[in-house]
């Protein structure tokens, strides 16, 4: 079992891997089992409890997919650094206005012209379970970080 120090080091490693990569492909599963990928901008850093946030419209199809199948994947790449990161986890819709204010960044105005006043704006909260990455600087083979939280009795 990983200690909390190991977990903190793993989360910090993940933060470093995607620090300068703002956009990822957010993949959901539709009812027929097909995969759909959407370019998404991450909002903020990965939290200490291994959560990643994204702004979205609550009425979007990806939200419907997540309500039926919470498993998601977000892939980030930086070909110039030969860095590729795949994050697997579960997602849920969150409509917490305080959290939205905390995570808002002006660049999001492109997709949400009314800013936080958009009537349908919401957040996707991704609980990270596993990370697979290839970073040519550190290794010539893929590495895995398992951030799954063990179930408690």
Question: Can you put this structure into words, describing what you see?
Answer:
This protein has 153 residues and is α+β, with helices and mostly antiparallel strands. It has helices at 4-18, 61-68, 97-103; strands spanning 23-29, 35-43, 51-57, 71-78, 83-94, 121-135, 143-146. The chain has a 6-stranded antiparallel barrel with strand order 1-2-3-6-5-4. The model is unreliable at 149-153 (pLDDT under 50).
Q: How many whole angstroms does the radius of gyration measure? A: 16 Å
Mean pLDDT reading:
87
Instruction: Give the class from helix and strand content and strand pairing.
Output: alpha+beta
Number of helices: 3
Kindly report how far apart the N and C termini lie: 15 Å
- Assembly of the depicted chains: single chain
Overall 3D geometry? globular
Brief synopsis:
With 153 residues, the chain is an alpha+beta fold. The protein has helices at residues 4-18, 61-68, 97-103; strands spanning 23-29, 35-43, 51-57, 71-78, 83-94, 121-135, 143-146. It has a 6-stranded antiparallel barrel with strand order 1-2-3-6-5-4.
